Sequence to fold (381 residues):
Amino acid sequence: MPTRILGIESSCDETAAAIVADGRDILSSVVASQLDIHRKYGGVVPELASREHLRQIVPVVREALAQSGLAFRDIDAVGVTNGPGLVGSLLVGVTYGKVLAAEIGKPLVPVNHLEGHVHAVFLEAHLAGRTPELPAVCLIVSGGHTLLYHVTSQGGDGDALQRGFRYQRLGGTRDDAAGEAYDKVARLLALGYPGGPIIDRIATRVAASGANFSEKDGLSFGPVKMKGNTHDFSFSGIKTAVLYYFRAHPEFAEEIESRKAALKEGRSKADDLMPLCSPRTLSLIFNFQAAVVRDLVTRTLEAATETGSGTVLVSGGVAANSELRKQFELKSKSLGVDTYFPSRALSTDNAAMIAAAAYPHLLAGDLAASDLNAEPNLRLA
Ligand code: KG4
Ligand code: ZN
Fold:
């Protein structure tokens, strides 16, 4: 009989539940996104997020069960994210998970959200007949995190997914996360929220158009030099450069107002906003994405070379970025490194990755103590 785990995730602005068998087969996965609620504020509002988790958690879990055709009695354990994340949001999942596990008489496994992102990469790789080899370097890149880990297999019996992984932190952002930089720049440019997908779409279309911008067309960004740990990242400089550039060029005000008006009317697609962007703005969007992607790819591949890892895993919301995927595939080949991404649905927050990450911990008997609490600053490694 396979081991079936019900995963619950509520660390940020997605309420999610999923059932995964043996840490690899997704029987169901349901995600209720709060994007429409937070959009008008241009970012996640913690109070609204926890209130919405409270509303969604029961129907989302019920839907995950219904989609899998299973009942609570068929579940072997409950896995719940207990950190890192927003404390009010985490608390909803942790409290609900505790009550549910006690009620149905099943073990409760606390899961580190970041470990979930690592397992997301493994969830679908086997369907394509590709299993990532360890050791690997894992880049977790989202709106809240930009982190590099060295991932090795835990000793013991069974396959790697049963034994679980060991993590060593190689580096991380010293200021903004990459997704946060996307969101902040999109806000400065009046491109809507979240910023990642719209900047990605516009930059891709600019590239496809064959437009050739020169330096004088706008702002371009050189490589970010890091003192100390060169596996660290910094994205606040790029964001500030955009801010100062706009301050110094008041002629942008008019097009920004026109895009704000479009967004207010609900016209937020690339088709709606691109005609309202001057060539200089298009150049800036293109150069911003190129700079962020270059930094993420370069530092990750340097870490892979330095640690002698033949595998790179990329996970988190920004892993959905088309240029990031393209550049990793292009650059890792020449280094003999295999790069793996989750599908776009599993790149962003979901509960299948939480159920998958709970599996080796359940087998190892790492269960929640009765005083399990939300840990907003929980670390991995
Ligand atoms: O993992 P996620 O759903 O939530 C957390 O932040 O934990 O990631 C959301 C972040 C946002 O900052 C969003 O702008 C970014 O991921 N994002 C992207 C893309 N899709 C989402 N960034 C760049 N390109 C994308 N295609
Ligand atoms: Zn996440």
The chain has two domains: 4-172+343-364, 178-309. The pocket of KG4 (ligand 1) is lined by residues 12, 142-144, 179, 182-183, 194-197, 200, 316-318, 320-321, 348-349 (CB under 6 Å). The two ends are 32 Å apart (CA to CA).
